[in-house]
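Budget justification, computational time. The allocation requested in the original proposal was used primarily to generate structure tokens for proteins on the priority list. As evidence of use, we reproduce two of the resulting records. The first is shown immediately below.
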Amino acid sequence: MTGPPMSKTRILLIVCGSILLIHMLWIYSQLPETVASHFDGQGKPNAWMGKGVFLVFEIALLLFVVGEMLLVPRMISRLPNSLMNLPNKEYWLLPERREQTFATFRKYFEVFGSAILVLVTSVNHLVYMANVNRQNLSNNIWYILIAFLAFVGIWLAKFIMEFTRKK
């Protein structure tokens, strides 16, 4: 007997997490023993850590993001309706709609988690390039952050619109 099929958004989260993990393992051997891990506004390194600590930090970040995006919707679904702040909550939290409402929450959280993992992977690659080439952090960081903030704005607008209207 098999369970329900895995959602596309869950698969996306797993793929993005796997890409980050593979990237970390791929760059690990190429990093110097001491890694520039923090950069100022001009991209100059101003803090360092051992590459083993860097790897552990990145893997912990991966586990935290994936865990948070999988667990928070589940925890929210267990709250009483009175503690939820949701547009049209009387409609969305009716017993016959509640399960579908939280399935939608899960999908939105999984997409958001995937975007965070893409952000982390992109920044991680720029940190890798700065360390291997012994250069400042690339100005591409600003484009990555702008793209992420644009995504957050669109994601938030879609999330709010999803629950503002009644289906």
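The second record produced under the same allocation is shown here.
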Amino acid sequence: MYGKLFNVCREGLLPDVNLTEITDHNVRYWWSHENKQRYYREEDPLVSTVALMWEQRDVIVHSYIEQRRCFFVWYYPEHFQIDLKTMSEVYIDSTHGTNGQNAEFFGIITCENGSRVPVGYMLMEKKPTDDSKLFPGEVIEACTRFFSHARELGVNPTLVHIDKSTAKIAAIKVSTSCCC
């Protein structure tokens, strides 16, 4: 951001600005303002993110943000120029409690010639633990849709590496015919 300000001042577009008077607070403010203009689409952060993702080239988005447990998935198989049908091994993992939006982040990573290649992601609203007793199967349904959409793109592994998450295990059994 400071570089942008410097270039604008050097070009004479801000003749009354002295860069020695600019503080860190000024730079943070304008950086935030610039990012908001670039990425902001809607008031609701999930709706805004989905709208932004739909604008991206070569990104496939499936949105379920209107459901009680909001989630959306996105894939970009063309980005790494790999044939997903040849991937026999995938890794599926998720993060918990790593962001301020109260969401869980899931990823599907394939293995190609010894390298790990990300294929798709899911962002799912996190609910209280006892919510699972009141609304059983929501996380399994979200994971099933996530894995099923990957399968539609050609991901059909013979081996899936996962942790001991019961929701992921149940979803994989429903959406694939592979060994866990």
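A brief technical remark on that second record: Strands lie at 60-64, 71-75, 89-95, 103-112, 115-125, 159-161.
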